[in-house]
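Example 3.2
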Amino acid sequence: MKNDLSGKNAVITGASRGVGKAAALALAAEGVNLAVCARTLDALQDTVKEGLHEGVKIYAFAVDLNDPEQTVQFMRDAENALGGMDILINNAGIWLSGKCTDIPLEDWQKTMNVNLTAPFLTSQYFARSNIEKRRPGKIININSQAAFNGSTSGHVHYAASKAGLTAMTVSMARELGPSGITVNGIALGMVDTDLIRDAYFKNEAAYNARLPIGRLAEPEEIAGILVFMAGSGSDYMTGATVDASGGMLMR
């Protein structure tokens, strides 16, 4: 199946490592130009260096997604750099810990800002711009099995933010479908990234017991799914959240 991605433009948040970096490099290999962000430009050096080997254009931005103004400005800068946007991957997220009785309000608000408000703002900007230009597009939200299973290990704020992202995906899909913009998500389980690696290896047996496949996912495995979701093969999908959790989530 051809993905028909060559020459497209994608915006990816949190592209310095893990799934975000793997998605950026996989799309670059398909000929997609990129605008990527992370908290620092230094963190994006490897992504940019490796992606440029594919002969595409890559623009890197330092953004604090906890700050709504910076988030919207990133979208302006990304659009101006690329000249237009075809794909938006809302990948960036934080995974703070704490029992529900102990979570500080600051941690709750930061989790909601980064995991839910930032994807809303980037998607809103993407939709407004593409509707104005009568340009179709694809929004892909990186979600979690925790959106459906809830937290089992002290991450109520994370699970709540991802549940909100699920509802946002469906709601935006209904509104934006007539304009040619699809909105989908992918629910991940345990992926071998810096975000969860320490927690996983401290309690490896317990986590593996929840994984019928019996291992962590590699970021590149998730990137392969994202390439399909960004390409023409997914044109008739919208409002869907695809499960890629190694069996942690089965529906």
